[in-house]
């Protein structure tokens, strides 16, 4: 018995496309099924260098100082650091909402103060060039005030992060740290 052959190049191309699409669909289904296993667990799944899945959250690096967090495609916040974003997601996944809100609050405050400092520094230079001493002094005072608030925000954010690290990485599987004799 003779083997069946495809008669045209179009049929060969069509068959290749069908097989390729079936393979891609299988890989997509498998990947989604595996990711859904960890949907409600505080597991960090890296996807490349600038993207992570943590439970239902996705952390995407926009650039070095901007990490976008989304939950099921809904935008949540742009964090200043990867650590802040990851600890926020882990906290939310572990139902530690107060801690997560604190991280988000101080990160947002720090971002706003950083923007204010850039604005004030730019206007200090502009007013110095114009020779307007009163406005320069006003922007200098605002700059100093924002700098002091920034230091306060950094300290509070660092305390919150240290607390989150301690709470999240201690007793990961409900293990105790007691010495059993």
Written overview of the protein:
The chain is α+β, with helices and mostly antiparallel strands and 181 residues long. It has helices spanning 9-37, 82-93, 97-130, 133-169, and strands spanning 44-46, 51-54, 57-63, 66-71, 74-79. A 5-stranded antiparallel beta sheet has the order 1-2-3-4-5. A hairpin with a 2-residue loop joins strand 4 and strand 5 (74-79). Helix 2 (82-93) crosses helix 4 (133-169) and helix 3 packs antiparallel against helix 4. The longest helix is centred in the C-terminal third of the chain and has 37 residues, at 133-169. Mean pLDDT is 83; it is low at 174-181.
Features:
elongated; 14% strand; 181 residues; 5-stranded antiparallel β-sheet
- In quaternary terms, these chains amount to single chain
The helix count comes to 4
Kindly report the spatial arrangement of strands forming the biggest sheet: 1-2-3-4-5
The average pLDDT score comes to 83
Q: What structural class results from the helix and strand content?
A: alpha+beta
Low-confidence stretches: 174-181
Strand content: 5-15%
Task: Characterize the largest beta sheet: strand count, sense, and whether it forms a barrel.
Answer: 5 strands, antiparallel
The outline comes out as elongated
Beginning-to-end CA distance, first to last residue = 78 Å
N-to-C order of helices and strands: HEEEEEHHH
Q: What fraction, in percent, of the residue positions are helical?
A: 55-70%
